[in-house]
Design a protein that fits this description.
fumarase, globular, alpha/beta, 5-stranded mixed β-barrel
Length: 166
């Protein structure tokens, strides 16, 4: 199935996604990878996210650089280790590349979150990025926590409801 979803993503919409669905994401999404995601998880633990609202959000595991954005590997310890905490805090879709573990897939199901893969096509994603804003941890440079406004980011649901394409 091919369809567009807009952020914030509702609980009902996430429940309707199935492994193999082709999805085009539009709206605001967050970007972070191994340098910043543990810091965001710490803010969640401390209850100090401030004006960062993760309810119904998408986290794209990428850095934001002048060259553009492209997915990083999802199975890095700092990234895959953040899935549960971020999902509990409201993230509904984790966007990356590569396989994730069975335990992570199970936790995503418990939290009504899904994992989608995005092709490493930086040029295409640049054309679909409307704006970018630094949200937190500027000292991390391109690995800081960013918010992008996007239109039609393509991805394929890779793990949903305790099922996985890998």
């Amino acid at each position: 199935m091919k369809r567009e979803i807009k952020t914030p993503i509702s609980e009902i919409e996430i429940k309707s996604l199935q492994v193999g669905d082709m999805v085009y994401i539009s709206g605001k999404i967050f970007c972070g990878r191994d340098a910043v995601l543990p810091k965001i998880c710490k803010l969640i633990d401390e209850g100090s996210l401030g004006d960062i609202d993760l309810q119904g959000s998408v986290i794209f595991h990428t850095a934001v650089s002048p060259a553009g954005v492209g997915p990083t590997s999802s199975n890095k310890v700092e990234i895959e280790g953040s899935f549960t905490k971020l999902s509990e805090a409201g993230v509904r879709l984790h966007l990356c590349k590569g396989a994730i573990g069975a335990d992570t897939i199970e936790k995503l199901d418990e939290c009504n979150s899904v994992f989608a893969v995005i092709p490493p096509v930086t040029a295409l994603l640049g054309n679909n990025t409307i704006s970018q804003r630094l949200v937190a941890f500027p000292e991390l440079g391109m690995e800081a926590f960013y918010e992008l406004e996007v239109k039609g980011y393509p991805c394929i649901v890779a793990a949903a409801h305790n099922q996985c394409i890998y």
